[in-house]
Design goal:
Layout (H helix, E strand, L loop, with lengths): L8 H30 L5 H41 L4 H15 L5 H30 L23
Length: about 160
């Protein structure tokens, strides 16, 4: 469950912030290119230019928003890891809730609670899916009981046609 290839906490925050910015920039480029082309006037060159202009204007903004969420999440993750003295999925779930609450703080306590709930549920689903995939992948590496081994195919006899 733990990632051994991760950086120590002060550097992890910067690393996660950069990764979040990159994800937001790439996703925002694709989304805004399509959206700009759809809302541009008729004609290939106009649509291409509309998509390119919108992508250049809006993709960095979305990347910055992702980076803000990423740095907030990573800061809480390192804080919870330090306070609890262990790395486990609960740190990520609590960090998702805390980051969601902080990002919605300007809208009031009601919106903070809603965003915290959404952040916790999303991170809980992601962590649960990761645990499920790890357990599923680990089953192929478990030693097999010789009593449950499949029978020797040559002892089964000829195959019926």
């Amino acid at each position: 469950m733990t990632e051994y290839a991760r950086e120590p906490c002060p550097w992890r925050i910067i690393d996660d912030c950069g990764g979040a910015f990159t994800m937001g920039l790439i996703g925002g480029s694709i989304f805004n290119m399509i959206s700009g082309a759809r809302h541009a006037p008729t004609g290939f060159s106009r649509r291409a230019m509309g998509g390119l202009i919108r992508m250049k204007e809006r993709a960095p903004v979305l990347g910055g928003q992702f980076a803000a969420w990423g740095i907030c999440f990573a800061s809480f993750d390192c804080t919870f890891a330090h306070l609890r003295q262990k790395e486990d999925p609960w740190n990520s779930i609590m960090s998702g809730a805390s980051a969601g609450a902080v990002m919605a703080a300007r809208r009031g306590p009601k919106h903070m609670m809603g965003s915290a709930l959404v952040g916790a549920v999303l991170l809980g689903l992601i962590e649960g899916l990761g645990i499920m995939m790890n357990r599923y992948a680990a089953q192929s590496f478990r030693p097999q009981d010789p009593r449950e081994a499949p029978a020797d195919p040559s002892a089964l006899g000829p195959t019926p046609l």
